[in-house]
Prior knowledge:
By secondary structure, the protein is mainly β. Helix content is 9%, strand content 57%. The chain has a single domain, classed as Lipopolysaccharide (LPS) transport protein A like domain (lipopolysaccharide transport protein A fold, Sandwich), CATH 2.60.450.10. The relative contact order is 0.11. InterPro entries: OstA-like_N. Residues 1-25 form the signal peptide.
Amino acid sequence: MTPLRTLVLAALIGVLSIPSSPAGAQPILNVGGEPLEVQADKLEVDVTEGVALLTGNVSLAKGGLKVNCPRIDLKFDQTPHVNWARGSGGVLADVKGVHAEAPEVELDLKKQLLDLRGGVRLTRGQGWLQADKATIDIATAKVTLTQVKGSIPVSPKGP
């Protein structure tokens, strides 16, 4: 590993591990005004290509969104702002009270959409749904499902 690459990697790791930014400082991985907080056993960064790979006990959090899985691939621009992420290896996600489990997830941070694929299970309270695919709008927590079955509790009293 070249000294420059080692220095860039060390700086990126240092910035990613800081829980909050000092007044006036800009976090290196900023998304839509909120920092993207990440944690992993290992981080590999290719600054030239604008990609990063996090592996081992990976967690990602942004506002009301939390994602945990074994692997997350990130793409970022030159600012650097993260604009896309893909989690794989068995994903657990929570968005504003909706708990999701799926084999993989894709996160479009520009559109604020979380796409879960490959057999999804969503739970909230005592209700649960299974679907082939689920899309969650992060800003509104609106959920769209395809090929759905499940159980939704109803109130014993009418409206």
